[in-house]
Structures are given as C-alpha cells and as structure tokens.
Q: What sequence folds into this?
C-alpha cells in the first residue's frame, strides 16, 4: 500500500498546483464525496503561504491573525444563532401548544402558565386556572363545564392540531423538502464527506425553524431536540461562507459543522458537555483536538444565550430539570437493569418497525418529493439533470444506492392500516391522517394530551408538598380517618392507581404513534418521544417498587436499608433511568447519553444507575442488530456512509472487490501524452466514472497519477476560453514537459496541474480489512489497485458498501438457520 507518486512528490505536496489555479478545479458536484486527503493538502498549502507572508508587512500579519481567529469567530456566531433560535422555538412551541386548549385574554402572546403568573385568584390545588385564561368552550359557548364544553374543547384541539400539521407539511413540501425529518442521519453522512447541496442552506434553516414549531405544537409524537441539531448545523454552514478558510475547503467546513452539532445538543438538552460528547461519539467523522475545543466553546456560547433568554421561566436551560435528594441503594440496580432490558427491546423493536414502515413508504411508486435522492458519490451527471427537471421526483438509478432487501412486518391497530394507502403518494394526506389519529386518541388521556416535554417533567419530578399531580395522591391514616397527602411514604391512593392505568394506555399509544410519526414529511425528532416512553415505563416500575417497599418493608431486600416511613424509593429516578435506557436502545448512544441525562439532573450520585441501564440497553439492542436508528435510516436511504463502529471480519482481498471484474469492460484509463482533446472528451462522454487513472502508455500500464472527471472538463473549457490554438486535435499531456510534436501540430494542452501525483494505491493481495480501514480513517473516495506498479483496477466507496451488503446477505441465511 502506498501513495503512488513516491518520495519526490511527497516532499512538495500532493497536487502540482499552477501559480494561477483554474477556477472550479477542486470543487465537487452535488451528491458526491469529498476527497479528504486533497482538502487537507489544500489547507496545509494555504497555511504555509500565510505563514511565509505574515512577516512581509503589517497588513499580511493582520491577515494571518484574522485567519487564526476565524475558526473561533465562526463557532461563536454559530453558538449565538443556535441559542437564539432555540429560545425562539421553545417560546413559540409552548405558546402554540397551549393555543389548542385556550387563549389568554389579558395578553394574547402569553401561554397558559405565563397567563396565570400574575393572577391573584389562583388556588394551590388549581394553580393552572385563572380568570385571564379562557378555554375555547368558555369563549364560544360561555361555559367551562359539562358535556358541551368538553366536546367543544375536543373539537378545537383536533382543529388546531390538524391546522398546525397541515401548515407544516405544506411549507416543507413547497419551500424546503430537506427540512423534514430529524436531519441527524443526513448530518452524519455530510460530516463523513458527502455533498448534499441545499440541505444546510438558508431556506432549509428558515422553513425548518418555522415548521418545527408547528410540528411540535400539532401534538404529533415527535420532539424538537433532534431537529435542533440540524438547525445549528445550518447556522454553522451559513456562517462558514463568510470566511474563505472554510467556504473554500469542504474538510474545514466539516469541522465547523461538528462544533455546530455540539451547540445543537447543548441548547436541546441544556447539556453543553453532553453536546460535545454527542458530536464526538455519534455524528462526527473527523474530530481533531482543535475541533474538540471549538465544539466546547460553541456549546458554551449557545447554552449561555439560551440561559439569557430563559424560555421556560425557571432559570434553567430545559423544561424538565430536576434534582433528587434521596440516595439510591445497591438492590435497586436490579430494577434499573430491567429497565435497561426494556429499553434495549424497545429500541430493537422500534428500529425494525419504523424501518419497515419507511421502506413501505419508499417502495411505493409515489413520492411527489423525496427525503433525499438515492444517489451516491459517483452519480452520473444525467441523474442530476433528471433531478433538476423532474419536479423533485424520486430517482434511484439502477445500481446506485445500497439498500437491503430485509422485509419486516408490523401489526398495528386497524385505524392505522389506511395509512399504507397514502404513505408515499400523498405525503400531505399521510401527515394529516397521523395528526388526526394522534389528536383523537390523545385528548381523552391527560398524559397524552399534554406536551411531551411537560409529561417528562411530571414523570421526572419527585412527589412533594408543592406537587398537585395525580401521581402524588397518596393515602394517609390520621385519627382513624383516611386523608390524602403528597407524602410518597404512604400507600397509593385512587389517584395514583388511576394515573397508573392512564400511563399504561399512554405507553401503548406512544409506542405505536412514534413508529408511524418518525419519518413523516415534517421536522420530527426522536429524542423526546423515546425518553417519554422510557419515563412512563420507569415511573410505573418506580411506583411499583415504592409500594412493594411500603407493604413489605420486613423483607430481607428492604429491611436493611428501608425503615418504616422512610423515603427509600424515588419513582422519579426510575423515570429518568428508563428515559435514558429507551433513548440508548434506539440510538445506541452510551457515554454522551449518560452525560446528557446527568446534566439534566445535576447530581453525580446517579451516574452508576444511568450507566448500568444504558449499557444494558445497548447490549440487549445489539443482540438484535448493531445498527442504531440513524445508521438504519442511512442504510435505508442508500447514503455512502462507512460506519466506523462496524467490524470487518471477512477474508476477502482487494482483487475480489475492485472494478472491473472479469466480465466487465476494461478499465477506462488515460495515457500521459498520447491523447487528443477529442479523444479525451470522447472517453468522458462515453463513461460515467468519477475519475480516471493516468498511465505511461497502453503497453506498460504503469501508474502516473489520477485525474478527476470534473477537473478535466473544467480545465478543457477554461483552456478554450483563455488559450488560443486549442483545437479538437490538440495533444493532451500530463507530463512536466510537452512531447515532441510535428511542426504543423496545434498547440498542446497541459493538464498536469489537475493530476493527483500520489493517489492511494494497494496491491491486489491487500486484505479488504485493511482497505476498509483505510477508507474509514482517511475518508478516501477511491483507491487504485496495482500489481508490480501496473494498474489493475479501482475500488470506490460504493464498491466497498456493495461488498459489505453482499457479505451481509450471504451471512443472513446462515444466522437465520442457527
């Protein structure tokens, strides 16, 4: 394995640049993969030029300082914008969510809680009721109680939910198709080097911000935390164009996007450190040490801005910040681990069910606009033309994309089966149907009617004298009479049992609706729904453990550490552990997830339960499949993404994967000084390859370098505009000196400046395990295969992905039969 140009080339730099670079050379087409090695080489060359000139004058020294500080400046702007937009989204989503139930007459812009803050007529038991806040039944019918008011409130709830959902999906469809979904699978792919023009653009940012508020307010089983990462990355991408250091280098731009993703998680969960670890563990492909520092700084700035805005009015960064004061005991690790098992099972089930539903949506020949094209890094230009001229019709050329053929089945309630008729052909109607079913089923149950973040807050919160939740209606015996108290060290009252049944129904509802909601053509995050499912399950287990300890405190399990009347069990802690377990089961996050949840609670004491539950959920989930939900959607969409977490354990060689194979046409190559412009353009027009190896001659096949298709085309067009005498029969040469030509020959065209003199090469006997590792760690687009210096073939990222899929399909029947 080598960098084919040798030591002489490597002592200078990878590419032989002209003093006046050709405009457009070194850029990339849409739906292509960047060349990380070339981008890093360009950045080193730029840095050397700046250092060599900074001592020439004060102006050059100032420019060098500006270049050095531009990285910190761009992440500062990204953090400021991310924090401001997150605060705006939080405030708007809370207001619109309460708009479904009523309106504040004294100040229309106040939500329900803010409306009653200044009221002197509220009671402790009914602190959410005040004269200033009017339900829709009170405004329309003039009555607050009775069947008529209930029906009117029910109708208005459904009306507003459908209106918000309809407006959200229409805005996405008309103005920014890329604004739908979570965005994290695409961001992972972009950070790995894939180009998706417009996915992080200003229109996507604007529409995603607006429709995220509408989607959350519609009551759909989704969250805003995942899309906030997309919003932050849009900010980072837009600000990076203000600095040539990042706008002209795709690899450097991805360093900004890594920092932006950390800022997104920071404002989503109020967890700056967790955001940095999330960027490192989950989304980033290339994460040098300076990116770690800048990610930390971006997360810090974003969190500071959000804290200054104070969108929730509690001086915290998130709505469901809680603190516990009761320690946990060793015996409780058993239910914590069981919650981890539940989280792993839920994650495996959700991934399979959701991918099956999304595949059904994609497999129908509908789709007026796609989430993303099934294109890969060597997409022919004609596919892009088809995309531009087909009014956003879904395109999947034969042979492109790596999509498995697994077929899963999922049985749902009969009311949801109608969705399969509209899943792809009518995305607007599908969103309306899901929103209608969600609103109709959610309204009767108070735990599904309320905002999911508020539900998590209620489940996380421990019972105390200031809590009026049904979950805190415990019974106490005083002087022979029964009274109800908020003290959890008492037997559960009817309110607790009623709440338990409602939570069980809410758990079933959330599980089903989350499967069908994630992947709709609206912004939809998965963090909050998964945490809600785990929090519900955890709270149920916590109350069960609490009552078990109360009634059987003399058991050997409790008598050593739980005295009669003591506050032994904290149900809110179980909810928190369950939330972490279910989110870990779906995403397979570990370290970053524990830190995020730890920052939510503010206590070091509960790290061990969180770690135990999260690791258990990951182990259980990995037993059914090592892919998290984001990796599964990446594979479903056919993105060219090599997951660094997967191990390659097969014994194939480079010659088994390289193209061309024995049945394919010969490898298209260019000779270093024998071709004419007409012959070169003929090779380009007759093939769809992304680049061509350059050899000495047809006889020797010895490798000289590698030239990209796009660079050749741009160089020829530029030469015809700026150089006289370039004709169709002009000789093209990639050598340092022009070949000997007849006197009457037209002017030759030198293309050495676009030639990569040291392409990565491996021998035909190199194990694929090493080749895959090279592609992952260096981010290669292609690698040439040689034998004794002669070119045999080429391996692209697409070839590796196809090979991995073939091997997976071959081992699947074997594993099924075991």
A:
């Amino acid at each position: 394995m080598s960098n084919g140009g040798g030591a002489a080339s490597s002592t200078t730099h990878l590419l032989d640049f002209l003093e006046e670079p050709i405009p457009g050379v070194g850029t990339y087409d849409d739906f292509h993969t960047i060349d990380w090695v070339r981008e890093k080489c360009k950045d080193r060359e730029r840095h050397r030029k700046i250092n060599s000139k900074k001592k020439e004058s004060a102006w050059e020294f100032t420019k060098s300082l500006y270049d050095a500080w531009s990285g910190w400046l761009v992440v500062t702007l990204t953090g400021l914008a991310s924090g401001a937009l997150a605060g705006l989204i939080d405030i708007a989503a809370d207001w619109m969510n309460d708009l479904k139930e009523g309106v504040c007459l004294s100040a229309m812009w106040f939500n329900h809680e803010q409306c009653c803050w200044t009221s002197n007529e509220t009671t402790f038991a009914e602190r959410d009721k005040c004269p200033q806040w009017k339900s829709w039944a009170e405004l329309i019918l003039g009555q607050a109680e009775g069947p008529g008011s209930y029906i009117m409130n029910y109708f208005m709830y459904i009306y507003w939910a459908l209106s918000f959902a309809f407006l959200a999906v229409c805005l996405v469809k008309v103005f920014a198709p890329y604004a739908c979904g979570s965005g994290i699978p695409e961001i992972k792919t972009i950070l790995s080097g894939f180009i998706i023009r417009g996915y992080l653009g200003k229109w996507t940012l604007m529409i995603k911000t607006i429709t995220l508020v509408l989607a959350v307010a519609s009551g759909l089983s989704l969250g805003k935390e995942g899309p906030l990462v997309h919003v932050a990355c849009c900010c980072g991408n837009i600000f990076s164009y203000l600095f040539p250091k990042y706008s002209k280098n795709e690899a450097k731009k991805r360093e900004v996007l890594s920092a932006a993703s950390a800022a997104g998680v920071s404002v989503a969960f109020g967890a700056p450190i967790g955001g940095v670890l999330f960027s490192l563990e989950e989304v980033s492909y290339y994460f040098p040490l300076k990116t770690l520092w800048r990610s930390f700084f971006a997360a810090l700035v974003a969190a500071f801005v959000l804290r200054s805005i104070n969108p929730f009015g509690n001086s915290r960064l998130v709505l469901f910040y809680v603190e516990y004061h009761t320690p946990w005991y060793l015996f409780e690790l058993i239910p914590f681990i069981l919650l981890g098992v539940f989280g792993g099972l839920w994650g495996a089930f959700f991934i399979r069910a959701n991918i099956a539903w999304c595949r059904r949506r994609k497999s129908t020949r509908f789709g007026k606009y796609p989430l993303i094209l099934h294109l890969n890094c060597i997409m022919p230009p004609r596919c892009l033309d088809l995309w531009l001229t087909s009014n956003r019709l879904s395109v999947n050329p034969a042979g492109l994309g790596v999509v498995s053929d697994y077929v899963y089945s999922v049985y749902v309630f009969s009311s949801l089966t109608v969705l399969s008729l509209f899943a792809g052909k009518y995305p607007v109607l599908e969103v309306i149907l899901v929103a209608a079913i969600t609103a109709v089923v959610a309204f009767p149950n108070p735990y599904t009617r309320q905002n999911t973040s508020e539900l998590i807050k209620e489940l996380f919160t421990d019972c105390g004298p200031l809590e009026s939740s049904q979950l805190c209606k415990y019974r106490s015996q005083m002087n022979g009479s029964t009274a109800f108290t908020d003290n959890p060290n008492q037997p559960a009252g009817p309110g607790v049992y009623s709440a338990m049944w409602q939570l069980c129904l809410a758990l079933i509802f959330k599980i089903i609706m989350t499967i069908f909601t994630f992947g709709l053509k609206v912004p939809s995050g998965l963090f909050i729904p998964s945490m809600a499912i785990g929090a519900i399950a955890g709270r149920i287990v916590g109350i069960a453990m609490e009552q078990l300890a109360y009634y059987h405190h003399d058991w050997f399990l409790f008598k050593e550490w739980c005295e009669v009347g003591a506050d032994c069990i904290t149900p809110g802690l179980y909810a928190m552990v369950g939330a972490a377990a279910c989110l870990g089961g779906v995403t397979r996050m570990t370290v970053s997830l524990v830190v995020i949840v730890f920052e939510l609670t503010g206590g070091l004491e509960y790290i061990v339960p969180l770690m135990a539950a999260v690791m258990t959920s990951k182990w259980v989930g990995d037993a059914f499949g090592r892919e998290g939900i984001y990796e599964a959607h990446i594979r479903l969409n056919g993105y060219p993404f090599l997951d660094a977490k997967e191990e390659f354990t097969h014994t194939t060689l480079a010659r088994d994967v390289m193209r061309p194979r024995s049945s394919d046409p010969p490898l298209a190559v260019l000779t270093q000084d024998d071709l004419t412009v007409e012959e070169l353009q003929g090779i380009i027009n007759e093939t769809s390859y992304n680049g061509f190896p350059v050899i000495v001659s047809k006889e020797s096949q010895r490798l000289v370098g590698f030239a990209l298709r796009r660079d050749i085309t741009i160089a020829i067009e530029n030469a015809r505009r700026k150089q006289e005498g370039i004709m169709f029969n002009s000789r093209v040469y990639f050598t340092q000196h022009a070949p000997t030509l007849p006197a009457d020959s037209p002017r030759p065209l030198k293309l050495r400046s676009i030639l990569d003199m040291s392409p990565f090469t491996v021998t035909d006997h190199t194990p694929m395990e090493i080749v895959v590792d090279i592609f992952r760690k260096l981010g290669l687009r292609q690698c040439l295969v040689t034998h004794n210096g002669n070119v045999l073939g080429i391996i692209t990222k697409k070839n590796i992905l196809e090979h991995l899929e073939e091997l997976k399909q071959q081992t699947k029947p074997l594993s099924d039969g075991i």
User: Anything to note?
Assistant: The longest strand covers residues 790-796.
